[in-house]
Fold each of these.
Amino acid sequence: MVLTSQYSCPFELVVTLTIDGPASFIAPPCHDPVEILYADEYCLLINKPSGLLSVPGRLEENRDCAITRVQETYPDALIVHRLDMDTSGIMVIARGKESHRHFSIQFQDRHADKAYVAWVDGIVQDDEGSMAQPMRCDWPNRPKQMVDYELGKSALTLYKVIERDPANHRTLLELKPVTGRSHQLRVHTAAMGHPILGCRFYGTERSIAAAERLQLHASFLSIAHPVYPERLEMHCPPEFT
C-alpha cells in the first residue's frame, strides 16, 4: 500500500542540499505559502515555494523560511534535508527526534527515491543519459559550485527528456540526482550546455532572461514511513509550464 494524495503529474519527478550564502545576503520576502501535502503525527510532506529559504539564514532578516513557518503549526517539526531557495517542491519534515533519525538515515544511505523536473535552455538531443562531472565549492564566489576533475567530489545525475519545445528553444527534463552535491542539477545541466532557465548562478544571458524564476521543481518523493509499513509517495506538479 502506498500513501498518496490528489496531487499528480505526468512525470515522476527532489532534493538537493545547499550551503548558506555570504553572511550579508538578505533574502527577498516570499509571500507564497508553504503547502502541506500530507501530515500525520510522525511526519509532514510540504511543497516549498520558490524564493523561500529551507532553514533560517545567519541574519535575523533571513529568519523566515520553510521550517520556521511549519513550526508555527507543528512545534515538533525538524528539518531533514533542504532545497535551494530558488527551487520549489516537495520536502519531507520529521516530527520528533526518532522520525528525524529514521529519515536522515534514508537520505544518507540513498534510500529515498527523488526526482525533479526542469526546463533547460536549448534542445537536448539524447532521450536520456547521465551527467557525472565531479564538483566542489567555488570558494571565492560562494555559494557557487564548480566542476573540478582534480579536486572535485564525485557527482552523478540521471536525466530523461520529457518534452522538446523547439518554438521556445527549450527542453523539459526529468532529473534524478544519485548524489546530493550542492547545486548539482544546476551545475550539471550547465556543464552539458543546457543551463536551467532562470538560473542566475550558472545561466547564460539568454537562459536567465527566459524565465522570471528558476525553472526547477522537486515534484516526486518516495520514502519509507518511520512507523507505518506503507511507503510515503508524493507527486506534486510545478507551477511553471
Amino acid sequence: MPTDIVVPALGESVSEATVAQWLKKPGEAVAMDEAIVELETDKVTLEVNASEAGVLAEIVAAEGDNVEVGALLGRIGEGGGAAAEAPAPAAKSEPATPPAAEAAPAAPSAPTGGAVNGGEAVDVVVPTLR
C-alpha cells in the first residue's frame, strides 16, 4: 500500500510553501528518514524525509508548485526496500577500521576520562552521518 508524502506543519504563521527541488526521481529507492524533497517558505527551506523505505512511486506536486500544509506531494510505494537499505551495511563496514586505531594505545597509561571496561580503555566510535 503506498504511503503519502505530505507537506508537514510549517510554523504558526506559515500556511504554504513552494516545492523547491525533488531530491529523488520516480522509481528510485528511498530509505526511511532519507530526504526526498525540499520545500521553501518565505522564512525557511526545509527537507521532507521519507516516513518509510520503498520506491518513490509518484510525484504529485512539481517543482515550483505552491502547496499548503497537509497537501499531497507524492507517494512512496512498496518494493525496493532491500535496495533502499543497501547503504546501511556499507555504513556498518566503516567501523571496521577503528580496531587498528584501538590497537595503537596498547600500553595503557593513566585514565584520561575515557570509558573504562574492567580496567581497559574503550574507544567509542561515532558513525559518520550523511
